[in-house]
Protein backbone atom coordinates (compact mmCIF):
# COMPACT_ATOMS: atom_id res chain seq x y z
CA UNK A 1 0.00 0.00 0.00
CA UNK A 2 1.26 3.47 -0.87
CA UNK A 3 2.45 5.44 2.14
CA UNK A 4 1.98 9.21 1.68
CA UNK A 5 4.39 9.89 4.54
CA UNK A 6 7.29 7.78 3.26
CA UNK A 7 9.15 10.76 1.80
CA UNK A 8 8.80 12.73 5.03
CA UNK A 9 10.00 9.76 7.05
CA UNK A 10 13.13 9.38 4.95
CA UNK A 11 13.78 13.13 5.24
CA UNK A 12 13.34 12.88 9.02
CA UNK A 13 15.97 10.14 9.21
CA UNK A 14 18.46 11.91 6.93
CA UNK A 15 18.04 15.49 8.16
CA UNK A 16 17.22 15.11 11.86
CA UNK A 17 19.08 11.92 12.76
CA UNK A 18 21.83 10.80 10.39
CA UNK A 19 23.26 14.30 9.93
CA UNK A 20 23.41 14.77 13.71
CA UNK A 21 25.69 11.80 14.20
CA UNK A 22 23.55 8.70 14.66
CA UNK A 23 25.28 6.10 12.50
CA UNK A 24 23.81 2.75 13.60
CA UNK A 25 22.27 1.55 10.34
CA UNK A 26 19.86 -0.79 12.12
CA UNK A 27 18.43 2.14 14.06
CA UNK A 28 18.20 4.31 10.95
CA UNK A 29 16.48 1.51 9.01
CA UNK A 30 13.97 0.90 11.82
CA UNK A 31 13.08 4.58 11.93
CA UNK A 32 12.59 4.61 8.17
CA UNK A 33 10.27 1.62 8.44
CA UNK A 34 8.03 2.50 11.41
CA UNK A 35 5.20 4.88 10.47
CA UNK A 36 5.46 7.52 13.20
CA UNK A 37 2.24 9.24 12.08
CA UNK A 38 0.32 6.18 13.30
CA UNK A 39 1.58 6.78 16.86
CA UNK A 40 0.37 10.36 17.33
CA UNK A 41 -3.19 11.49 18.19
CA UNK A 42 -5.65 11.85 15.33
CA UNK A 43 -5.36 15.28 13.74
CA UNK A 44 -1.62 15.54 14.47
CA UNK A 45 -0.40 13.30 11.64
CA UNK A 46 0.98 16.27 9.70
CA UNK A 47 3.25 17.09 12.66
CA UNK A 48 4.50 13.54 13.20
CA UNK A 49 7.82 13.96 11.38
CA UNK A 50 8.77 17.32 12.86
CA UNK A 51 11.89 17.64 15.01
CA UNK A 52 10.07 17.86 18.36
CA UNK A 53 8.11 15.85 20.91
CA UNK A 54 4.30 15.83 20.71
CA UNK A 55 1.63 15.43 23.41
CA UNK A 56 -0.29 12.13 23.37
CA UNK A 57 -2.66 12.76 26.31
CA UNK A 58 -2.61 11.84 30.02
CA UNK A 59 0.35 14.20 30.49
CA UNK A 60 2.57 11.99 28.30
CA UNK A 61 4.52 12.74 25.12
CA UNK A 62 5.97 10.96 22.11
CA UNK A 63 9.66 11.82 22.12
CA UNK A 64 11.48 13.84 19.48
CA UNK A 65 12.63 11.46 16.68
CA UNK A 66 16.31 12.32 17.23
CA UNK A 67 16.12 11.40 20.93
CA UNK A 68 14.38 8.11 20.12
CA UNK A 69 17.22 7.30 17.73
CA UNK A 70 19.98 8.33 20.15
CA UNK A 71 18.56 6.29 23.03
CA UNK A 72 18.08 3.26 20.81
CA UNK A 73 21.62 3.53 19.46
CA UNK A 74 23.06 3.83 22.99
CA UNK A 75 21.56 0.42 23.82
CA UNK A 76 23.82 -1.23 21.22
CA UNK A 77 21.16 -3.80 20.41
CA UNK A 78 21.71 -7.13 18.69
CA UNK A 79 19.05 -9.26 16.92
CA UNK A 80 19.04 -11.80 19.80
CA UNK A 81 18.46 -9.26 22.61
CA UNK A 82 15.59 -9.38 25.08
CA UNK A 83 14.56 -5.79 25.85
CA UNK A 84 12.61 -4.25 28.71
CA UNK A 85 11.10 -0.81 28.14
CA UNK A 86 9.88 1.31 31.04
CA UNK A 87 7.08 3.62 29.91
CA UNK A 88 5.30 2.52 26.74
CA UNK A 89 3.60 5.83 25.96
CA UNK A 90 2.37 5.87 22.37
CA UNK A 91 4.26 2.64 21.63
CA UNK A 92 6.53 4.27 19.05
CA UNK A 93 9.79 3.61 20.90
CA UNK A 94 8.79 -0.02 21.53
CA UNK A 95 8.00 -0.41 17.83
CA UNK A 96 11.50 0.80 16.95
CA UNK A 97 13.06 -1.59 19.47
CA UNK A 98 11.03 -4.51 18.09
CA UNK A 99 12.53 -3.97 14.62
CA UNK A 100 16.03 -4.63 15.96
CA UNK A 101 15.79 -6.91 19.01
CA UNK A 102 14.31 -10.40 19.48
CA UNK A 103 11.68 -9.51 22.09
CA UNK A 104 10.27 -6.44 23.85
CA UNK A 105 8.35 -6.19 27.11
CA UNK A 106 7.03 -2.71 27.91
CA UNK A 107 5.76 -1.69 31.36
CA UNK A 108 3.21 1.14 31.36
CA UNK A 109 1.74 2.75 34.48
CA UNK A 110 -1.40 4.23 32.91
CA UNK A 111 -3.92 1.70 31.60
CA UNK A 112 -5.55 4.09 29.08
CA UNK A 113 -2.14 4.93 27.62
CA UNK A 114 -1.34 1.22 27.29
CA UNK A 115 -4.63 0.59 25.46
CA UNK A 116 -3.88 3.41 23.01
CA UNK A 117 -0.43 1.92 22.41
CA UNK A 118 -1.97 -1.47 21.64
CA UNK A 119 -4.30 0.17 19.13
CA UNK A 120 -1.34 1.98 17.56
CA UNK A 121 0.48 -1.35 17.21
CA UNK A 122 -2.55 -2.82 15.44
CA UNK A 123 -2.79 0.11 13.02
CA UNK A 124 0.94 0.00 12.28
CA UNK A 125 1.08 -3.78 11.92
CA UNK A 126 3.57 -4.09 14.79
CA UNK A 127 3.65 -7.45 16.58
CA UNK A 128 5.70 -9.22 19.23
CA UNK A 129 5.50 -6.54 21.94
CA UNK A 130 4.06 -7.43 25.33
CA UNK A 131 2.63 -4.58 27.42
CA UNK A 132 2.30 -4.97 31.19
CA UNK A 133 0.40 -2.52 33.41
CA UNK A 134 2.38 -1.71 36.53
CA UNK A 135 5.05 0.28 38.30
CA UNK A 136 7.89 0.48 35.81
CA UNK A 137 10.42 1.37 38.48
CA UNK A 138 10.09 -2.22 39.71
CA UNK A 139 10.79 -3.61 36.24
CA UNK A 140 9.39 -6.99 35.24
CA UNK A 141 11.16 -9.77 37.19
CA UNK A 142 9.36 -12.59 35.36
CA UNK A 143 11.16 -11.81 32.10
CA UNK A 144 14.59 -11.11 33.60
CA UNK A 145 17.43 -11.00 32.92
CA UNK A 146 17.32 -8.48 30.07
CA UNK A 147 20.06 -7.73 27.57
CA UNK A 148 18.85 -4.13 27.34
CA UNK A 149 16.60 -1.89 29.43
CA UNK A 150 15.32 1.47 28.20
CA UNK A 151 13.69 3.97 30.56
CA UNK A 152 11.60 6.59 28.76
CA UNK A 153 10.89 8.92 31.70
CA UNK A 154 13.11 11.07 33.92
CA UNK A 155 14.52 9.22 36.93
CA UNK A 156 16.16 10.82 39.97
CA UNK A 157 18.49 7.79 39.99
CA UNK A 158 18.61 4.43 38.23
CA UNK A 159 16.14 2.17 40.07
CA UNK A 160 17.93 -0.71 41.78
CA UNK A 161 15.39 -3.34 40.59
CA UNK A 162 16.25 -2.47 36.99
CA UNK A 163 19.96 -2.90 37.67
CA UNK A 164 19.22 -6.25 39.31
CA UNK A 165 17.26 -7.38 36.22
CA UNK A 166 20.07 -6.49 33.81
CA UNK A 167 21.95 -9.45 32.33
CA UNK A 168 25.72 -9.68 32.60
CA UNK A 169 26.92 -7.57 29.67
CA UNK A 170 23.53 -5.88 29.49
CA UNK A 171 23.01 -2.16 28.88
CA UNK A 172 20.52 0.20 30.50
CA UNK A 173 19.78 3.68 29.13
CA UNK A 174 17.79 6.26 31.08
CA UNK A 175 17.43 10.04 31.46
CA UNK A 176 18.74 10.70 34.98
CA UNK A 177 18.58 14.00 36.86
CA UNK A 178 16.04 16.32 38.44
CA UNK A 179 12.58 17.13 37.11
CA UNK A 180 13.87 20.04 35.00
CA UNK A 181 16.89 18.62 33.22
CA UNK A 182 18.46 15.18 32.91
CA UNK A 183 21.37 13.57 31.11
CA UNK A 184 21.10 10.39 29.09
CA UNK A 185 22.91 7.78 31.15
CA UNK A 186 24.09 4.36 30.06
CA UNK A 187 24.86 1.65 32.60
CA UNK A 188 26.66 -1.50 31.45
CA UNK A 189 26.76 -4.50 33.78
CA UNK A 190 30.00 -6.46 34.09
CA UNK A 191 29.35 -9.13 36.69
CA UNK A 192 28.79 -7.29 39.97
CA UNK A 193 30.17 -4.05 38.52
CA UNK A 194 28.05 -1.33 36.87
CA UNK A 195 29.87 1.01 34.50
CA UNK A 196 28.15 4.39 34.05
CA UNK A 197 28.50 6.84 31.17
CA UNK A 198 26.79 10.21 30.80
CA UNK A 199 25.70 11.73 27.49
CA UNK A 200 23.68 14.71 26.28
CA UNK A 201 21.15 16.74 28.29
CA UNK A 202 17.47 15.96 27.75
CA UNK A 203 14.08 16.72 29.28
CA UNK A 204 11.51 13.99 29.93
CA UNK A 205 8.32 13.65 31.95
CA UNK A 206 9.01 12.31 35.49
CA UNK A 207 9.31 8.59 36.18
CA UNK A 208 6.71 7.94 38.87
CA UNK A 209 6.75 4.94 41.18
CA UNK A 210 8.28 3.28 44.19
CA UNK A 211 11.84 3.79 42.94
CA UNK A 212 11.21 7.03 41.05
CA UNK A 213 9.47 10.30 41.82
CA UNK A 214 6.50 10.12 44.20
CA UNK A 215 3.03 10.75 42.78
CA UNK A 216 1.63 14.12 43.77
Structural class: alpha/beta
Given the C-alpha coordinates, what overall shape results? globular
Helix % is: 25-40%
Major beta sheet summary: 7 strands, mixed
Please tell me how large the radius of gyration is: 16 Å
Spatial separation of the terminal alpha carbons: 46 Å
Mean pLDDT: 95
Quaternary structure of the protein = single chain
| Strand order in the sheet with the most strands | 5-4-3-6-7-8-9
Low confidence ranges:
none
Say how many strands there are.
9
Tally of helical runs: 6
Range of strand content: 25-35%
Order of helices and strands: HHEEHEHEHEEHEEE
Structure description:
- The chain has helices at residues 6-17, 25-33, 65-74, 92-98, 111-124, 160-164; strands at 54-57, 60-62, 82-86, 103-108, 129-133, 146-151, 166-177, 182-190, 193-202.
- The strands form 2 sheets. It has a 7-stranded mixed beta sheet. Strands 1-2 form a two-stranded antiparallel sheet.
- The radius of gyration is 16 Å and the shape is globular.
- The longest helix is centred in the middle third of the chain and has 14 residues, at 111-124.
- It is 26% helix and 28% strand.
- It has 216 residues and is an alpha/beta fold.
- The protein contains 6 helices and 9 strands.
Amino acid sequence: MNDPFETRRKAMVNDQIRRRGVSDERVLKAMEEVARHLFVPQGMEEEAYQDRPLPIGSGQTISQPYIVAVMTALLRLTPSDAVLEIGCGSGYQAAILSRIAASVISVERIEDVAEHAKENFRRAGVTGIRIIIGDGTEGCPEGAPYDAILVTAAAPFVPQPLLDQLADGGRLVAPVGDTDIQHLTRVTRRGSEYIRESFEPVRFVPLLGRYGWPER
